[in-house]
Amino acid sequence: MTTFSNFVDRVLPARILSRRTEILIVTLLSMACGAAYAFFAGQDVNWDWQNYHDYDAFALMHGRYRLDVAPAGIQTFINPFVYIPTYLLRHHLHPITAGLILGAVHGLNIVLLWGISRALLGRSAGWPLALAATVVGATAPLTLSEVGTSFADLSTSILVLAGVWMLLGYRPSSWRIPVGAGCLIGAAVGLKLTNMCFAIGAIVLVLGSSEPVRQFIWFAAGGIAGAVLMAGPWAAYLFVEYRNPLFPYFNAIFRSSDGPPFNINDPRFLPKDLKDALKYPIYWLLGINRTAENPFRDGRFAVLEVLILTGAVLALLRRARDWGRVAFTRTDLAFFGFYIGSFAIWMLQFSYQRYAIALEMLTGPAIVLFCIRLLPDRYLRAVTFGLAGFLVAWTQPPDWWHRPWSNPYLRSELPPELQAPATYFFLTKPLAFIWASSPRGSLFYGINDDHDLPINPGGELDKRIREGLGTPLPAGDWAVELKDQAMSCFSRGARRSAEDCRRVIDLLKTYGLERDARRSCVTIPGVIFVDAIACPLRRAQ
């Protein structure tokens, strides 16, 4: 392996290209790889797209937030700005064209990984090691699973990685870099609040610089500006409408009358204790998906956990300089402080795998950096390339649902009974995709099994439903649910819990509605797997 590496270095030296030319070539290759992967993955029709990605952008651009009532549940009120590009692409271009463009944009993460690897490893490490770090990060399972999809994690990770790259290349006496990095990471937080863990972790990276106080002030100023720019208008709207700028989240603080009296949290994926948390990387290595709905397999975090523990032990024994090549630098420690800090906050707050995509990609540079710092020269490339090959081969990405490109995104196969504007009451999720097929003027009210967002009597959402019912629509009122019997209350053979069905039926009664047994239910074609069923309602006497 050493002889081969020396041959490669003679044929393709590290400085064969200028930095600008190198970045340009890597950028074009990265976008091409992203587009190609999106094409072969197929058309994205994930659950969240059916529920709120598409609807939220539609509602913002067509003024539906003052007409409809939470058709996507609590996700209706997530900042919709980040989903507008996907909405425009999918509704104005051919599905394949839209998918290729999204894939190419997501591919920009690869060039950012390349830049971070070069900055972190040092150009003296050579391009083969930087390439290994980039490939390991770019082929991580959750990263691959979101290429070409409507998920915002892989789009906002572009901002996070760009900010990290800028901070790693910081030079003293320059205020532009910390401000710019703060703007990028702050914008990522504003577009998707779950990125807050990276913003907090980035503070460690900032404080590890040679000018911690000065750089922190500039970084904080840029972060606030970026977050306000991306989230300020939406937060202002939510505050005016519901007296909570993060509605319905953190409602124990803001006390909106339309939200629950507690802070919404999803504990499904959280570890039981510290011991259980330390086992999570082993779970991912073995394909045990404790932190996602769909199965995946990833050995990156387990390898990195072992390397971190090894590095810590060697540092405590003061043997890192004697046993390895060089001691860890200040930049190394600042980067690992960012990584570990972000990971700890993610674990404590979410433990949901998709929200850690930026960290998942950064495992590549982190693993190779540890190899450089800990391994002797004669073993470095053999071990690094062998480890990279294993991690790539062992990877199994999850599938958030794809279908052939031949199917259009928009369906127009509504039954004759629903060809005119109607009032829809959604009893389950995801059903908000129905808006794309419904005639203009239809209304959508979500009274589903989302216990975190009750329709409180006298609240703004309750008033909106009553006002809408005051003007009956031509096709009447309909209760819509999934045709899956486990999610149904009205269809034959329904197996949904009696408590859920009773709550929904009682809520319909408060609006003077009941199931019209004289008319039959109709089927609305679903996007994938399960169709929807719409049952007519009548005004109770």
- The figure for the number of domains is 2
Shape: elongated
Query: N- to C-terminal separation?
Result: 84 Å
Rg value: 26 Å
Number of distinct beta strands:
8
**What is the helix/strand order?**
HHEHHHHHHHHHHHHHHHHHEEEHEHEEE
Oligomer: single chain
Output mean pLDDT: 90
- The parts where pLDDT drops under 50 for at least 5 residues are none
How many strands, what sense, and barrel or not for the largest sheet?
Answer: 6 strands, mixed
User: What fraction strand?
Assistant: 5-15%
Question: Count of helical segments?
Answer: 21
Percentage of helical residues?
40-55%
Based on secondary structure, the structural category is mainly alpha
Short description:
By secondary structure, this protein is mainly α. Helix content is about 55%, strand content about 5%. Strands 3, 4, 5, 6, 7 and 8 form a six-stranded mixed sheet that branches.
Provide an overview of this structure:
By secondary structure, this protein is mostly helical. It has two domains: 17-262 and 269-394, no CATH class; 416-539, no CATH class. It has 21 helices and eight strands. The protein has helices at 2-11, 19-41, 47-61, 84-92, 95-106, 108-121, 127-138, 141-146, 153-168, 176-191, 196-207, 212-242, 251-254, 274-286, 300-316, 320-323, 330-349, 357-374, 377-394, 460-469, 498-510; strands at residues 43-44, 402-403, 423-426, 443-446, 477-482, 513-515, 522-524, 532-539. The strands form two sheets. Strands 3, 4, 5, 6, 7 and 8 form a six-stranded mixed beta sheet that branches. A two-stranded antiparallel sheet has the order 1-2. A hairpin with a 7-residue loop joins strand 7 and strand 8 (532-539). Helix 7 runs antiparallel to helix 18 (357-374). The mean pLDDT is 90.
